[in-house]
Amino acid sequence: MAFVFPPIPQPSVAVAGSDDRLPVRRIFCVGRNYAAHAREMGRDPDREPPFFFTKPADAVVDDGITVAYPPETGNLHYEAELVVALGRGGADIAEAEALDHVWGYAIGNDLTRRDLQNAAKELRRPWDLSKGFDQSAVVGPVHPVGAVGHPDTGAIRLAVNGTVQQDGDLSEMIWSVPEVIAFLSRSVTLCPGDLVMTGTPAGVGAMVPGDLCTVSIEGLGEIRTPIGPRA
């Protein structure tokens, strides 16, 4: 058997303190998982069931890589996020066992074409093109659980050109990491290499070409993403 054209290279993300890389299978994103962000998006932050959207695996971008300002938007937003990397798969995972499936944690930036997302919401259409475009999933080096444990508190901040725009704490998540994994595994069979972007605090906003976006999470360091000219 031969492929009719060469398959794309395996998408992957860096591993902290190693030359190894973690292969990426899928990217799941939790929507509105911080109460203050839900309010700024015009939603009630009550603890309704979590919902998810996805990004293609090859949307991943390493720390320090310049991201081209994407086409078809005039309102590119940043969203600082804790990223969970799974090392074990499974379906119907019990919440009490969910953390056993985590390989490590990383800092992420869920880039969003907000104008496209808002238009899709108004028309009750899918968000796919507003969230799943090229270079839309910035993910820093993954820190193994053995090195950082399971962070559930700690500052999560984002700055643009040195000015802090988002300043929250991981403890403010509406749905915790174990709850998110357990809930998601009831809908799909999770696999090693799946990434989960766990939502963003309040303070999302726009960037323009020439901006430098920095995201930090206590215990995981920081990542930096320059925004380049329009693609």
From TrEMBL:
Fumarylacetoacetase-like C-terminal domain: residues covered: 27-227
Enzyme class, UniProt record, top EC level: hydrolase
Highest rank taxon of the organism: Bacteria
Record EC number: 3.7.1.20
SUPFAM superfamilies linked to this entry: FAH (SSF56529)
Alphabetized InterPro entries for the sequence: Fumarylacetoacetase-like_C, Fumarylacetoacetase_C_sf
Any coiled-coil regions, as ranges: none
Record keywords: Hydrolase, Metal-binding, Pyruvate
GO MF assignments: acetylpyruvate hydrolase activity; fumarylpyruvate hydrolase activity; metal ion binding
Record protein name field: Fumarylpyruvate hydrolase
Lineage summary: Bacteria, Pseudomonadati, Pseudomonadota, Alphaproteobacteria, Rhodobacterales
